[in-house]
Specification:
single chain; about 180 residues; mainly alpha; 434 Repressor (Amino-terminal Domain); 3 domains; 8 helices; rod-shaped
């Protein structure tokens, strides 16, 4: 509803003639008629006088639905805030999950590397002019270089793949015996 129609409706509801309303506002009857026809509009002071006469706010007089707009804006703001909070919660959960997965992955990789770590031992021995090389690994690796198949078989019997230190002692003792260094 436009302002002119609003003034007309309120004037009729208050049982006032155009002359009576004009006198209360301090304008002419023709001014009231022009307002009601929408040819002109009251200025701010006249609008204040009209709102006091009719017992309504300026917003109600001019048809501004500020309460509705404020409620709508607050409602929209609350909805938006709710959506933002939900998004932040989801992001927080995703970040937390990715951090936990990363930590677990790193721990698993470290554990797998440690469990799959292969210790190797290289031994060089000499008997006379001959050089012998032996390589032993905790993964079951056993390579020999310059060693006859019979000696290789003797050495293999002395190897404990889970205890490379003991295996090294056994092999060195074997070669000491070959060299005649034992008493």
């Amino acid at each position: 509803m436009n302002l002119g129609n609003q003034i007309y409706e309120l004037r009729k509801k208050s049982n006032l003639s155009q002359e009576q309303l004009a006198e209360k506002v301090g304008v002419t009857r023709q001014t009231i008629s022009k307002w009601e026809l929408g040819e002109t509009s009251p200025d701010i002071r006249q609008g204040q006088a009209l709102s006091q006469i009719f017992g309504i706010s300026l917003d109600e007089l001019t048809g501004n639905e500020t309460k509705e707009m404020i409620y709508e804006k607050v409602s929209n703001t609350e909805k938006l805030a709710g959506i933002v909070i939900k998004i932040l919660k989801v992001l927080g959960i995703l970040i937390s999950v990715s951090v936990v997965v990363t930590i677990i992955s790193v721990i698993l990789i470290i554990c797998l590397r440690q469990s799959n770590a292969v210790d190797t031992l290289g031994i060089e021995e000499y008997v006379g002019d001959s050089s012998y090389s032996i390589e032993i690994g905790t993964d079951g690796t056993f390579n020999t270089y310059g060693i006859s198949p019979e000696v290789k078989e003797d050495l293999l019997d002395m190897v404990d793949f889970n205890d490379l230190e003991k295996s090294e002692q056994n092999i060195r003792q074997y070669f000491e015996e070959l060299r005649g260094e034992t008493e």
